[in-house]
Amino acid sequence: MSQQDNEGQEFDFRWAAEAEHKEPSARARMLAARWRENPPDPVPFRPDPGPAGPRRSSWVSTALVLGCVAAVILLLGYMQTRSPY
User: Fold this and answer.
1) pTM of the predicted model over 0.70
2) Tens-digit pLDDT profile for the chain (85 aa)?
3) How far is CA 56 from CA 61, 63, 64, 66, in A?
């Protein structure tokens, strides 16, 4: 095949985007057929939220993170003093 044949067979995305009729995907066709026979139950746009769990203060989270960082720093310092090199 020559280079001109390949250029002529490349997919033109602009042409496809400007098409008047677009065929639905296989999944869309499957759901449409299924829903024709058995329509889905209505679902609220935003369902009621469940009960909210206890919320920790942002200070508690900050102290926890800083405590973990301090523990890692101390552990690394301890390991460095114990190494023979």
Assistant:
1) no
2) 455 555 555 677 787 777 777 788 999 999 999 999 999 888 878 777 778 777 767 888 899 999 999 999 999 999 988 877 6
3) 7, 11, 11, 16
